[in-house]
Amino acid sequence: MSLRQRDIEQWMRHRYLPQELRRRVLEAERYHWAVTRGVNERMLMENLPEDLQRDIRRHLFELLKKVSIFNLMDDHVLDVVCEKLKQKIYIKGSEIFQVGGLVEKMIFIVRGNLENIDHDGTVLPLCEGDVCGEELLTWFLEHSLVSKDGRRIKTSGQYLISSRTVRCRTNVEAFSLSAADLEEVTSIFARHLRNPLVQGAIRYRSPYWRARAATIIQVAWRYRKKCLRNSSKGVQSNHSSNSRV
Question: Is the dihedral of CA 28, 34, 38, 43 positive or negative?
Fold first, then answer.
């Protein structure tokens, strides 16, 4: 760890990074080392037989059982997802998503606390077992196209814009599934992912879907109040006309 830190400090001096950036880099590196003990797991796994890789992934990703959606997945679906997951480390203050930015990944939180800040300023907590970027899965399912021969056409060139900011309140350990990998998974297992139980597991604890539902309810309530107000004015107008007659 000391050798690694020395190399990083030399690199930061060479790139003239300001002190605040250097502090954040060293903090992220220390947390990453604490989680991985300095071992490059991806490189280590690539040199092992495929069946051994699969069994090790199943063991390593037992942490994912904290995420409700994975409890509903069959083993063959879970194996494909686990093969594409990448470990991610975020430090306190890091922003995973920003309002107006692209949603390019789906994040499964294993350890740590975050906050979900909607465009209207509403703040909701996120913790282990929660998912963020889950709107990307539904977006891919809703925007899927099927060719005449029944094959699914990829939605390349189309992008989803974030309507919220997700910020880390503590150091966070998570697994990330990129948009490209998620699109491939949905193309293979679209029927399974459209299962109401799976969709319910995503939406039940989702701040994104709760905020969207609240917005729909508010719009419906305002529309109803407007209709009642117009109806009341119409009744009063008719009553006045009848009185003059």
Answer: negative
Per DSSP, the three-state class of 93 is coil
Determine the angle formed by the axes of helices 2-14 and 19-36, rounding to 10 degrees.
150
Question: For residue 98, what are the contacts with CB-CB under 8 A and spacing of at least 6?
Answer: 162, 165
Q: Answer whether 147's CB lies under 8 Å from 153's CB.
A: yes
* Alpha-carbon torsion (209, 152, 77, 192), positive or negative: positive
38 and 4 Cβ atoms separated by less than 8 Å = yes
Mind listing the domains of the chain with CATH numbers? 88-221 (2.60.120.10)
CA 19 to chain centre: 31
Output phi, psi for 154, to 5 deg.
Answer: -70, 150
Alpha carbon distance 125, 115 (integer Å): 5
Measured distance CA(184)–CA(154) in Å, rounded? 8
Exposed/middle/buried for 47, CB within 10 Å: 0-12, 13-18, 19+? exposed
pTM of the model: 0.68
DSSP 138-185: HHHHHT-EE-TTSPEEP-TT---B-SEEEEESS-EEEEEEEHHHHHHH
Instruction: Give the bridge partners for 177, in sequence order.
Output: 106
Averages of pLDDT over runs of 10 residues in the chain (245 residues) are 87 91 90 80 83 82 66 76 87 92 90 89 86 82 57 59 92 90 83 72 62 70 79 63 55
86-to-61, 99, 106, 128 alpha-carbon distances in Å: 11, 24, 11, 17
How far is it, in rounded angstroms, from Cα 105 to Cα 178?
Answer: 4
Tokens of 157: 């060139």
